[in-house]
Each structure stands twice: as structure tokens, then as C-alpha cells.
Amino acid sequence: MGGNLMPSVLNERFILSGAARKVFLTVGLITLGQAAIAVAAGVFNVRDYGAAGDGETLDTAAIQKAIDACATAGGGRVVMPPGKYLSGTVHLKSNVTLFLEAGARLIGTTKLDEYKHPIPPASMPEAKWGKWHRALILGDGVENIAIAGDGVIDGNKVFDATGEEKMRGPHTFVFVNCKNVTVRDVSFIDSANYAIFFMASDDVSIRNVTFTGGWDGVHFRGSPDRDCRNVSIIGCEFYTGDDSIAGRYWENTLISDCIVNSSCNGIRLIGPAKHLIIHGCLFYGPGVHPHRTSNRRNMLAGINLQPGAWDATKGELDDVLISDITMHNVATPFHFSLKPGNTAGSITLDRVTATGVYRAAASVESWAEEPFENVVFRDVTISYNGGGKRQKAREEVKSPGVDARGLPAWGFYARNVQDLMFDNVRLRYEKEDLRPVIICDRVGRLTLQDLSFPEADQADEPIVLNDVKHVQRGTMKKETGN
User: Fold this and answer.
1) Quick one: 155 and 78 in the same domain?
2) How far is residue 229 from each of residues 128, 198, 275, 423, measured CA to CA in Å?
3) Element (H, E) at 386
4) Please, how many CA atoms are within 13 Å of residue 400, restricted to the half-sphere of its CB?
5) Domain count, the chain
6) Are 106 and 193 members of one domain?
7) What pLDDT digit, counting tens, does each position of 172-201 carry?
8) For residue 353, what are the domain limits?
């Protein structure tokens, strides 16, 4: 992965929306701005400020002196040459790029009192969590900052018996209330909590970064009155124990050309988002690295959009485009759900292939008063493991928790959707499944255009419609076998 942004994402089938064009423009400006900083300003070597780089000496003070000197000089590049730099929290300053050369490794110390945390905006629910925000690298209210190079940032699996789940330690890179942030080419390994965590920040570009182990790879949050705006995650590789990409209150977000391997969810949205594009990504399980809390490796949902599932996060999910996606060995390819207080406008899925789906049908389900307004599945092929029994089809569908669960249909389940379209959708199973293929409850308009699926000899009616006001049927093909 890598190369220029535009050729890697665009092709004749992908037409950018206005929101996406804004994201691309923002990314370009950030990249050019950071490059200008590195060229125009000075270079500050942490060795010149006393860093030992021997993996034993605590180099926090020396690294901070180099950063402070760089900031005082008006900005530039703080270089970490090859070596092992043991450190507690270092504070990035405006106009500073922390550059890790190949062979450089920044390692989090196990001494918990060496870590500091920012003060999130008081309007954010997370503000009261205090030390949970601790970080190895911290940016607080700064702008034009970057982390780059071919080096490694090692969270060192720092354990904290008083932390979240009685084990999680500091995040690796935290920034709050920041603008123009670039992370490029580096590798994050063994983060003691999230690898990159940011709040209330804008114009963020994460490119060609590898995340290995730890919990979440990239997690970002706004608040009800303040979204995170103009975020791009491009050409990255995720091999995470927890969700690879997660968060809430996003506006103008692009996730493109990424490899996503997780022992939890690939992408988990836990709150509102507007103008979200997920394009050209590969999602696959089981996880290369285990979920550190449970030690399991099975991957859950590929893409899990669930505003309100964790806590009350009122707001809208709208203008979502998911295109050119491949998935393998996931619990379900898509789990879209709404809870009271949330609404959803337009969601379009285009050119998606999923195989080895082992737990649940894809679902679009509103448990709020308001329905999903308009959801389109176009050019979608999904192959399930199958094997479901008829009695499962009789089970009552209850409001979901935080993860996908088994359903009485094996292909798709829809609940409380205003306008739902299946256009060129192919559903398959490996083992004969006696549940219905599709169940729709409370759908205003259902369009079944060019739909194909196998029909088991002993199965009941393949498509079950409850309180569906209008059905438009195109070509439907029932097949034998899988």
C-alpha cells in the first residue's frame, strides 16, 4: 500500500461526493503543510539533548528537551535515530514533527507515575475519566503536529491493575483539541490501551501506518456539540486485539485502502456520523493477535454502525457510502442498529463480497422511534456458513446489545426501515439452512431487484414480510444447493 492518495482511491466507478472532495483537499493540505515544516525548519536530534537510546535509561526528559527546543525555534523535525528510547509521557508542541528513523523504537516505561493525561473539554462525557486518558505521546491544544518515519512506537503492554478492566494502561498517542495532525509510515505495537486516541480534533491524516496487537487501533470521538471533522485513514494495516477503528461524532471521514484484521470488530461506530466513506478495504478474521481481555481471536462484525448501543449519543447517522469491500471469516458483514435518540438517513453499500460469515445475518434495525430512512445494498454477494435449524426461525427478535447476535433469518434482517433496496444481491450458504433467507419487519418500501438465494427443501417461506407497506419485485432467482 502507499503511493499517491488520488490514484489509490479513485477509479471510473467511484464518484466523489462533496464531502469526500473536502476530505481529499484537507488531506492534501495537511500533507503539504507537514512537508513544508520539515524542509523549512530545523532538525533536532534527541541524542544531542542527552537521550541514551539504550532501552534502559529513561529518556523522557531528553526527548522533551528536543521537542521544546524545536518548538521555541519555530518548529521543525525532532529526530530519533536508531536505538531504543524508554520514555514516559512526552508532550508534542505546535509545528513539531517527531520523526523516528528506521531502527528507532520509542518504548513506553512500565512506571505508571511517568504518564500524564490531558484535560478533555468539559462538555465531553469522557472528561471525568481522568487518568484513563494517559498517553506515551500527548498533544493538548496544539496544531500542525506530526509523527512520521519508519520506526516503531512500542506501548510495551504496560499493565495497570487499577486501570480499565483492571489491566489497561496508557494509550500510545493521545491528542485533544488539536488541528492539522499527521501520522505517517510508523508502526504501533503492543499498545497498553488504544494506539491512537483523539478527541475534539480536526484535519487528521493517518497514512500507511501499521497497528499490531494492543486494543483499538484508531479511536476518535467528538461530542454532541463538537464533531471530529475531516479525518482520513488511508493505506493502513490493522492487526488489533480490539476494534480496529472506532468512535463517534464524526464528520467528513474517509477510511480507504486498509487491511483490517481484528479479534473484535473491524469498524465500530458507537455514535453519530455524517459524510462517512469506507472504500476499498479488506476485512478478515480470525485475529492475528488475541483480544487481551478474553484471549479469543474470532473476528466479530466487519462493519458495525450502532449509534446509542453503548450509551446515549443523540444525533444522526447520514450520508454513508461503503464500497468495494472484501470480507472473510467475520461474525456478520454488517450490523447497523439505532437506539432511542438516534436517527439515520442514507446508507449505500456498493460492490461488496463476504465469505465465511459464521454467526449472524446482515442486519439493518432501528429500535428507536425513527426508522432508517434509505438503505441500499447493490452488487453484494455474501456466503454464510449456514446450518441453522427451523426452531431458530421462531425465536423472538430482541434489541441487540453491543455485538451482533444470531437472528431468525440467515441472510438479512431488517426492522423499522423506511426505504430498503436489494439490487443484484447474491446470498449463499455452505450448509443447508432452514431459516428464512430474509425477514423484514415494519418496512415502508421494499425493493427486491435481481435477488438470488438457495432454497432448502425443508425450509419454510424464504422471504417473511411483517408490516411491509409496499413491495416492488424485480428478478428473483431461487436456486438449489448452496
Assistant:
1) yes
2) 23, 12, 10, 32
3) strand 372-386
4) 30
5) 2
6) yes
7) 999 999 999 999 999 999 999 999 999 999
8) 300-482
